[in-house]
Specification:
The complex is a heterodimer of chains A (about 110) and B (about 675). Chain A is built from four helices and three strands, in the order H-E-H-H-E-H-E. Chain A has helices at about 1-20, 35-40, 55-65, 90-95, and strands spanning about 25-30, 65-70, 100. In chain A, strands 1-2 form a two-stranded parallel sheet. The longest helix of chain A is centred in the N-terminal third of the chain and has 17 residues, at about 1-20. Chain B has about 675 residues and is α+β, with helices and mostly antiparallel strands. Chain B has four domains: about 5-95, Nucleotidyltransferase, domain 5 (2-Layer Sandwich); about 110-280, no CATH class; about 305-530, no CATH class; about 545-680, no CATH class. In chain B, a hairpin with a 2-residue loop joins strand 20 and strand 21. Classes of the chains: A mainly alpha (about 110), B alpha+beta (about 675). At the A-B interface, helix 1, strand 1, helix 4 and strand 3 of A face helix 15, strand 16, helix 20, strand 23 and strand 24 of B.
Chain lengths: ~110, ~675
């Protein structure tokens, strides 16, 4: 999550260089409810282990309105594609989501 | 042999044959306990020759292992010939004969890479006469069979090689006739029995309408024909392009490329008869075909001695030398004591356009930078290049804003870089010089360690003098904002793309750059860093067709299997399973190419991530995974990434982690993708 946050922040800067600026936060869809909660609420999860600078980075950008953290069910989580292997039907679904298409179709 | 009783005559004939041809005698004869081997007549003959007769025990075929193994080898080969060419099994006899002639001429590993033929006769067999078993072919009919107006050839299936005659055995299933002829034209990439049966019935009208033996077919000059005509008569190409529709044309690049392959190994030949899956064929087809065709037709010399013989390469070298003189690259000076000399050599390369046609012959003088020592000959080598994410973002932004993207290329880019250090180089072959003199380099020559750095420094200076500022977030991205608009320039070594809404500013920039460097305006954005870019009203379509084709070519896959997903579900790999590969070089180079391919193929990103973990010590299992990826790629060559022009400029990100998925170190895998509008950019 933190690495994605970093990338988003970088891209926002880069796009600002190109001349596009954003007024509202970038949604970062995540299928893990608890990590969203941890990012939102610093008090409630004091007993959660392994919270390091990464979490604080995410929380910082969340507070400052750079990112937002909406929940997305795992079945619609596109980034799933980059973390594990998939069955054929799911694979095809995800490929279509990536706006990949056969050259012939266009 | 129809009956076992014929064995005796066959043995006698074989004995006589090897006696006369090779003056050898049979010293020992081993067989099983078949009745034909144990007849008295046969014993007498063996006794007369002084041949030892050995037999195996009953029910112990292991003792006759050599013969049994040979049988299995022959039957296996024949079976694969039949299956790969979809030939019905009644042709087994022909298949076995063809298999034997193949086995005898293919080099085998246990005889030190010699083929049985070579071992026996002492010279290399003539591979050029081999054809793909079961392929379609046209046999010229004899004078008796044809009348003046009937078709002159018959479409047949190729079944083997004539025995005792120089010719090919071909069977015509319509007239049920076996021809042995040398007037045969082959369509090696089309297995005869894969032609739909409708076409068989059309034979008389359609297929033969374009008779490969007729003279007028020779003037077809389509690209494909040119590549294939080195081997076959031009008629082949005509037939393909005219009668066989899209599905077959997808096999064309494969086949034509292999025909001109220099070492005609038989394994390759057999593979040719299988067929690529049918793609819906797009506008790419012609360019794709010509890519492959041209890649194979061209020859690049590897040394100065070879190149100097060819006027085309001579001219290329002259051009390079004059460019070097123009940029004032070196001074000839005597070598000062205590300085080391860097060697140099010529590198030859044929440059192709994005459609595969030859752009130019390029000779380049490179320094042997690997012999340089840090601190002595060079200090700083780092040079930034623009990130791929930045390029994709640029393209999306440009396509949404309808900005024009143009692409420029700096000729001899590195030669523009000024050298800070003193470097001495041996004079290259091809220029006259006094002995004892060496070249003191003033400009960065290719392959010097510091060349990219020197070039980037130089370019930054020039571009900042034009009012551009390097972005702090990607230092190879230069931006100029004025009242008239915005110009964005991204530099990837010597290729750059320029876009923006200040059209006048861009043209001023182009002329300015052309004044400083020797530039080439490649015009519209079509082919950048091996990525083909197609523009449609819906957006830019990025693909790496040529790159995929090159990888597949390099990997030399021997089958044409395709699969639907690049990796199995729940597959877990660790560095310790399987036997380590003996030579991991190919693995590494292919994985490296695959990593570059993920630019336009995010669908293989995860698998490539997996296999690239093991480049240090790849094993057979990892190699199999790479093969799976390649097979997947083969089925999906035409997948490309659409950067939509109609979407909004909203950033969206997805983030996911697979906690502790790595079986060895329990590290988690994090994946994310960021969309700008509908387009994937990171």
């Amino acid at each position: 999550m933190a690495s994605t946050t970093k990338k988003i922040v970088w891209l926002r800067w880069l796009l600002a260089d190109i001349g596009i600026s954003f007024s509202h936060p970038t949604p970062m869809y995540c299928d893990n409810q608890s990590s969203i909660q941890i990012a939102h609420n610093s008090v409630f999860h004091e007993h959660t282990k392994y919270i390091k600078i990464d979490c604080h980075l995410t929380r910082h950008h969340l507070k400052h309105g750079t990112i937002a953290l909406p929940f997305v069910p795992s079945s619609l989580q596109i980034a799933n594609f980059f973390t594990k292997a998939h069955s054929i039907s799911r694979f095809c679904f995800l490929v279509s989501k990536l706006s990949m298409l056969i050259a012939a179709a266009s | 042999m129809k009956h076992r009783s014929e064995f005796f005559e066959i043995y006698a004939a074989f004995r006589a044959l090897i006696n006369t041809q090779h003056s050898a005698v049979i010293k020992c004869f081993r067989c099983d306990l078949g009745g034909e081997y144990t007849s008295n007549k046969f014993f007498q003959m063996l006794a007369l020759d002084g041949t030892i007769h050995q037999t195996s025990y009953t029910d112990t075929p292991e003792q006759n292992g050599v013969a049994e193994k040979k049988h299995r080898h022959i039957v296996k080969t024949a079976r694969s010939l039949l299956l790969s060419a979809f030939i019905p099994s009644e042709f087994w006899g022909e298949a076995v004969l063809a298999a034997i002639s193949l086995i005898n001429t293919i080099s085998s590993s246990h005889s030190l890479g010699l083929s049985p033929f070579e071992k026996l006769y002492g010279y290399v067999p003539d591979y050029s006469s081999f054809r793909v078993f079961g392929c379609a072919c046209f046999v010229l009919r004899s004078h008796i069979e044809r009348s003046k107006l009937s078709s002159r050839s018959a479409i047949c299936v190729f079944l083997g090689y004539g025995e005792g005659k120089k010719g090919y055995r071909c069977f015509d299933p319509i007239t049920q006739k076996l021809y042995v002829s040398r007037h045969v034209v082959f369509l090696e990439h089309i297995p005869f029995f894969s032609i739909p049966s409708i076409t068989h019935s059309l034979t008389k009208s359609d297929l033969i309408r374009i008779d490969p033996f007729s003279k007028d077919s020779g003037n077809d000059t389509s690209l494909y024909v040119r590549s294939i005509c080195t081997h076959n008569s031009a008629g082949t190409g005509t037939l393909l392009s005219d009668t066989l529709e899209a599905p077959f044309s997808s096999t064309t690049p494969q086949a034509s490329s292999e025909i001109v392959d220099p070492p005609p190994r038989q394994s390759i030949r057999i593979r040719k008869s299988t067929k690529l899956p049918d793609f819906a064929y797009s506008c790419y087809s012609s360019s794709f075909t010509s890519f492959l065709a041209s890649i194979h037709c061209l020859f690049e010399p590897s040394s100065y001695k070879e190149a100097i013989l060819d006027p085309l390469w001579q001219q290329a070298m002259d051009e390079e030398l004059s460019a070097l003189h123009k940029t004032d690259t070196w001074d000839l000076v005597p070598l000062p004591p205590g300085k080391s000399v860097v060697g140099c050599r010529w590198v030859y390369k044929i440059k192709t356009n994005s459609d595969g046609s030859i752009e130019r012959y390029k000779a380049r003088l490179v320094a042997k930078g690997y012999s340089q020592q840090y601190g002595m000959d060079y200090e700083e080598t780092f040079a930034p290049v623009v990130k791929m994410t930045t390029i994709r973002t640029l393209i999306v932004v440009a396509s949404i804003h309808q900005w024009h993207i143009s692409q420029l290329d700096v000729k001899n880019a590195f030669l523009n870089g000024d050298l800070q250090e003193e470097v001495y180089m041996a004079p290259p072959p091809g220029i006259s010089h006094d002995s004892g003199y060496v070249c003191k380099l003033k400009k960065a020559l290719y392959d010097l360690k510091q060349a990219p750095h020197a070039w980037f420094e130089k370019f930054s200076i020039v571009i900042s003098s034009l009012g551009f500022v390097s972005s702090i977030h990607d230092s190879a991205l230069f931006i100029k904002c004025t009242d008239a608009g915005r110009i964005i320039l991204s530099l990837y070594v010597d290729d750059m793309i320029i876009t923006g809404d200040d059209i006048d500013g861009i043209s001023v920039l182009k002329t300015e750059l052309a004044r400083r460097f020797e530039m080439k305006d490649l015009g519209y954005f079509l082919y950048f860093l091996g990525i083909e870019v197609a523009y449609s009203p819906r957006g830019y379509l990025l693909s790496q067709l040529k790159y995929v084709a090159d990888i597949l070519e390099r990997a030399r896959l021997t089958d044409n299997k395709t699969i639907d997903t690049p990796i199995e579900v729940n597959a877990r790999y660790s560095s310790s399973d399987g036997l380590p590969l003996i030579d991991p070089t190919l693995y590494r180079s292919i994985v490296r190419s695959l990593v570059y391919l993920t630019i336009t193929r995010p669908d293989i990103a995860y698998v490539v991530h997996v296999v690239s973990q093991f480049v240090a010590s790849p094993t057979i299992i990892h190699c199999a995974t790479v093969l799976c990826i390649l097979q997947y790629l083969r089925g999906t060559v035409f997948q490309s990434l659409l950067l939509s022009s109609t979407s909004s400029l909203e950033l969206r990100a997805y983030s996911d982690a697979d906690h502790g998925s790595d079986p060895t170190d329990r590290k988690s895998v994090t994946g994310f993708c960021i969309f700008l509008g509908d387009s994937l950019i990171s």
